[in-house]
Amino acid sequence: DTMAFRRLATHITQRRDAITYARCITSSTLASSSSRDGDDERSLAERLSRVPLERTRNFSIIAHVDHGKSTLADRLLELTGAIKKGGAHQILDTLPVERARGITVKAQAVSVLWRSDAAGGEAREYLLNLIDTPGHADFSFEVSRSLSACDGALLLVDATQGVQAQTIATFYLALEGGLVIVPVANKVDMLAADVDRVAQQMISVFGVEREEVLEVSGKTGLNVTSVLDAVVSRVPPPKGDLNAPTRILLLDCHYDDYRGAVNVVQVVDGEVRKGDKVTSYVTGQHFEVLELGMSTPTPCEVHSLKAGNVGYMITNVRDVRSSKIGDTLHAFKETVEPLKGFRQAKPMVFQGLFPVNTDDFEKLRAAVDRLTLNDASVTVQGENSTALGAGFRCGFLGLLHADVFHQRLQEEFGTDIIATAPTVPYRIAQRDGTFVECTSPLSIPSGGFPQEVSIEEPLVEATIICQPQVVGKIVELCMDRRGEQLEQTFLDDSRVIMRYRLPLGEVAADFADELKSRTSGYATFDYDDAGMQKGDIVRMDVLVNGTAVDALATLVHRSKAQRHGKDIVARLKEALPRQMFEIAIQAALGGKIIARETISAFRKQVTAKCYGGDISRKKKLLEKQKEGKKRMRRIGNVDIPNETFGALL
Questions:
Q1: pLDDT at 31
Q2: Residue 502: left (phi > 0), alpha (psi -120 to 50), or beta?
Q3: Alpha helices, H only, 265-357
Q4: Looking at beta carbons, which pairs linking 292-295 to residues 24 or more positions away fall under 8 Å?
């Protein structure tokens, strides 16, 4: 029958492409090994340095989370001979947290050589600088940094899932930067793949042509050679000038225990050599270049980096804080125009981090200092809490970013922490028209501000892609989160795009989890900054036995205060241990109590010895016990253990 014939034809095509892929792998591996080990072949460093600017291609892989970016990057590295076939998976995911979670957190760059005749004429050797990027919305800062060094992008879409929210967000980031888009449908070998439907979605959303869409499988290597040929033929070479004054864009920086600050750079104009002196445009500080190289993906030292090259640079300065991400480096005593940088990281979620044991504060300080050396998007400032002691107020790009930071603190440095409830950055409008940023609930008085002073809350424009049958549930969720609908359009018969304007405070807590729960995990979500708006934001305090606990204070909208107060006092009642006296747990807005729970006291059975007699004898004993409990409550203090804060927050 027709379906059986189609399956047989597809199987034959996949077998043929797999054999072609294996032959390419074998030939490229042999060529690579002979070029590295043979006496008559020039070294890899010389080959990398001799590729001219017009045969250099800088490109990135962008996609939604879990659409196969790192797997496709592995196949590309195998095909070019950079790594051996059948080695470690996801070679560009170097952090333990990346391998544990199966996600990309840090963008990684690698330089490979590829011989192709796709650009016309005889086959020539091309230098391809590939940058693998994260896919989650929290790490859009890493994506924007990567795209600033590229001239083209592989827009990857899972053929089993179709266009997702982050796919659209990264597409517009690439479009903003003027990059050439190469659309790729991945995972076409899977039985659930619907390539024609996905291609139609890409045509309607991204405006590409059907013949431009490449159909590949990053897992099996099906048709992967066409990806490299498309990069050679479609992506233009860098626009740099080798004879112009040297200008270098600082893309990233990480700390090496033995070599100090390792700068990831792109040489835009001119050439930089080992031993040259360079100057920072932002700080005016001078550096001496000690080492230059490219990642292949193992570091390969070279004598110089020319216009269009992406590599690493080590200077005589070991402190990472001297390197400003997005800075322009130029030759010593030369005057140049600074390069256009990229959008700086803007913290969207703030949390207080405190050690479980207050004696471990110095250990936490050292761990945070070391970790922030490799993550420029985290902001840190000191904070003191009456309940938790000394700690830090940290700003993150989102909840996943914060969670990854916590996990890295625990796994890489063995530091146990307590993280307070996440808050978003509010803005206080003063009487004189100035604004003060507020990142902690303690910055706002418990009674609120006078009418002349207002509080503005941040807004985001959220993009949600879902199935038509769950639209009602999503509308209900967004209305409950004080959302305003902006747009609703159909991608095709099975996909709907919805755009909402939402307060960031409603999104930062559990919006993504609630969205997945209501849509059985099929909806995808992405958001971008949409400015500020005046809001009725109040500080809610939690009182334990009449004493406010500063670590549990939160900023909420007045309409949600009672619901949030009831929830937190109920959870605190379950977490707090019982005492010998009654404990009142209250949520308050200023002087008004909006929710209350009571933990009953441990009681001795004082009437157990009364076997008979008048009832007044039992009442007398009970009244005596009651008076004792009142006296104990007046003088007793509730010591909340750190384990309780950890369980509650």
A1: 44
A2: beta
A3: none
A4: 294/48, 294/111, 295/108, 295/109, 295/110, 295/111
Confidence bin at 389 (pLDDT 50/70/90):
confident
Distances (CA, A) of 461 to 484, 486, 503, 536: 9, 9, 9, 20
**SS3 helix, strand, coil % of the chain, rounded to 5?**
35, 30, 35
Give pLDDT, residue 492.
78
**Angle at Cα 231 formed by Cα 229 and Cα 235, nearest 5°?**
135
Residue 199: how many other CB atoms lie within 10 Å = 22
Beta strands in 426-523 (DSSP E): 426-429, 435-438, 454-466, 484-492, 495-503
Nearest Cα residue to 131 out of 142, 123, 139? 142
For residues 555 and 538, what is the distance between their CA atoms, to the nearest angstrom? Answer: 6
pLDDT digits (tens, 9 = 90+) for 493-523: 878 899 999 998 888 777 888 888 888 777 8
Q: Which residues contact 288 (CB under 8 A, 6 or more apart)?
A: 275, 276, 277, 315, 316
Paired tokens of 431: 């009487």
Please report where in the chains the tokens 């139609």 appear, as a residue: 200
* Span 91-110, average pLDDT: 64
- For residues 4 and 246, the model is more confident at 246
pLDDT in tens, 203-233: 988 888 999 999 998 888 888 899 999 999 9
Domains of the chain in start order, with CATH, are: 41-234 (3.40.50.300), 247-331 (2.40.30.10), 349-422 (3.30.70.870), 454-535 (3.30.70.240), 539-647 (3.30.70.2570)
- Number of Cβ within a 10 Å radius of residue 191: 6
Residue 341: the pLDDT is 65
Q: In terms of Cα–Cα distance, which of 302, 288, 155, 296 is closest to 227?
A: 155
Given a cut of 90, whether residue 122 has pLDDT beyond it is no
The set of residues, in sequence order, having a beta carbon less than 8 Å from that of 579 and lying 6+ positions away, is 599, 601, 602, 636, 638
Rounded CA separation 499/86 (Å) = 43
Mean pLDDT value across residues 162-173 = 83
* Interaxial angle between packed helices 69-79 and 225-234, expressed in degrees from 0 to 180 and rounded to the nearest 10: 90
Assigned token pair, 461: 């424009």
In the 8-state DSSP scheme, what is residue 243?
A: T
Count of CB atoms situated within 10 Å of the CB of 128 = 23
> Distances from the Cα of 483 to the Cαs of 233, 367, 397, 460, 475, in angstroms?
45, 39, 21, 10, 9
Greater model confidence, 39 or 308: 308
C-alpha 265/C-alpha 325 separation (Å) is 10
Question: Higher pLDDT residue, 90 or 292?
Answer: 292
- Alpha-carbon span 280 to 327, nearest angstrom: 7
What is the pLDDT, as a whole number, of residue 87? Answer: 60
